[in-house]
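Posting this for the archive.
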Amino acid sequence: MSSLLTRDEYQNLADSLPLPTGAVIDGKARAARSGDTFETINPATGQVIAKIASCGQADVDLAVEKARLAFESGAWSRAHPSERKRVLRRLVKLMKQNAHELAVLETLESGKPIYDVETIDIPEALHCLEWHAEATDKLYGQTSPSGDEVVSMIVRQPLGVVACVLPWNFPILMLTWKIGPALATGNSVIVKPAEQTNMSTLRIAELAHEAGLPSGVLQIVTGPGEVTGKALGMHPDVDMVAFTGSTEVGRKFLEYSAKSNLKRIVLECGGKNPCIVLDDAENLDVVAQHVTQAVFWNMGENCSSNSRLIVHEKIKDRLVETVLHKLKEWPLGEPLDPGNRLGAIVSKEQFDRILGYIKKGRAEGARIVTGGNAHKYGKGYFIEPTVFDDVTPEMAIAREEIFGPVLSVIKVANADEALRVANDTQYGLAASIFTANLGKAHRIARDIRAGTVTINCYGEGDVSTPFGGFKLSGFGGRDKSLHAHDQYTELKTIWADISDPKVSRSVDYPGCTDER
């Protein structure tokens, strides 16, 4: 991975880059058939970057038609697994060669610090895509123990046309989480990026075709969710939608499926994740470092953000003080400056939403110990990292997903109360536990209703571990790991009678045995 550039070098690159603005359908960049566009905004300045094609029903119909033709042709779906691996690895190489360009495109639209995009998002995305590529020719089918007169094969086949609907908070990383397993298993994929963040995805689609991906196998339709996303969700020839985003929008895709062809739906939705710190936690300096990373990374615009700090009353004040000290290592400012760790909020809408929750927290009686205001940096959408103390579990800031740089501190008297508070939520995506008692840690991890639980650290596992949630945080499957390959395939049984036709035998109902 190439090293970081300077702020001026990133700015020069931003000023000179050709900006991708057309949808990618059948291997070509295209305007929407209607000619409609929408503006993409730089949240660090509030200024328009470019106008992106706004795809409607006709564009989605064309993309689905080309995806189906590509799938049925077998150019990708029936290609040898080693060939699919070779093409995907070539895409990884091209993305690596163009990493600075991709990072700038991502930062311009999302407001993410270029430091994070270059050192976290892109390296993890490359690793994810390469990992799934390498798995392509290493997954075996099965045979069942059905007796000597039968060969019963259990095989997986690609679903067909898969739609991937992406969030705006990690555009490149979430793209690879979806297309890695979907392409590795032989599907044709149509991606709809979030309306706020399109350009890095469009550029990667260009690189994918350069890498040798056949036309129609990876297409990008851009546009608003209520138009473009709905058209994919309702389309009768889309076999699956994999969605990451809010629970509210996730529900809509379940409705679309029910009203159309009962397409498979996999949802990774919101979270209100707890971080439990017990009074025997070791090294509060390290704990505070994890707490700070968990809630302020990506300006808190992260579904796995540990936005609820549930801490034992004996150590609460010391831990909060240490978190405030750690915040000094998180400078806020221009996203293209690699010295900054906090950037801009992705949009004016999200900016206003976060400030609304901060206002509500004050009104409900929580006490701000730092932050709480918009940061006056230029004309962009910046918010100070904010810590609320004296939060109680019934407050809105403790129950509702804010998706911003806001930490709610809740004190508890013991581990049992901490567990009750942690589970008192409609979400169940992630959680963290800090304690020196490993047995207690495992018991709490077992009892927390969440898809990923970390002990004495914050994180989401790695590419080999499945990621998704319980309750309103998820539905139908998981991202990452080999389990993701399963959800992009159909399971089929192939039953072959190989008994000797010369030997007389009774014909019974298939599968029956003498034990009935």
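The mean pLDDT is 96. The first helix runs from residue 7 to 16.
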